[in-house]
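Supplementary notes for students who missed Thursday's class. We covered one full example, reproduced here. Read the sequence, then the structure, then the short commentary at the end.
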Amino acid sequence: MTQQTPIRRVALSLAAAGVPPLPLRAGKVPFGNCRACKGNACGGRPNMKTPGPCRCPAPCHAWAAATTDPAVIVSPPWAAAWRGAVCVGYHPGGAGLTVVDLDDADAIAWARITLPATRTVPTTRGEHWIYRGAMRSVNAVRPGVDIKSTMAYTRYLGPGTGTMVDLPDVVRALAAKEPPTGRPAPFAAAPTGAGGGECRHRTPAYLERGIAMAEQHITEASSAVHATVYRTFLAVLSTHGRCGCLTDAHVARLFTAAQSKGETARHCTDAWTNARTRLGL
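Structure (token representation):
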């Protein structure tokens, strides 16, 4: 693959503009961890929970791999990923941007009434509204609306039209509200055991590894995504579901991984509920 390959040329152009790109494979998903990073063996940023770049020379860890360094983008460790890439993604928060992802006509109509006009980019189903300023990323802040900024990636679909304006408070406020659907019910803590000792799953490394591996298992699924999501939820609950160590933040991470594979928020909720019911939780 040469530097003149269109996909990589777009990536280099973005990097030159200060927007950190990363390669995306079929399904608009990032490449899975390399062998050295698989299963959190690298000790780096396995689930992208901590802001900052990935230290692996390969394009691992989704948004954390995005970079504006042209030497990295054309380096041999990235070559195989570019050969398999179908499009270019980017990390909006890394460029100080926020993307309001509008999935359908109803969401676009809502945005035109509610949000200040800014740069817009058409997508296959809706539009991206891009604002200057970063914030935390949240999915399903309202029907058909996701927010992509820090610790998230989105597909690059062109420069768009219109003048970019500063991120308005109305968008920030969306992230502070409870999403109308797709959030799991608060996970009630269960007794830690007859002995009253501390739950072993509360050991940060043990629980973190389990959640990270579950996220990776979901994001690397190439087929039967519905079944994979359900089985992964079931496995997590069977291991961690009775001791009270799971929090809403842990569950939200699993939901985010599933939604990155195209699952709807409602399907995530149904799969989680079904898994809890099967285990009698």
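Commentary. The longest helix spans residues 204-219. Strands lie at 21-25, 29-30, 87-90, 97-102, 119-122, 127-132, 138-142, 145-148, 154-155. If anything here is unclear, bring it to office hours.
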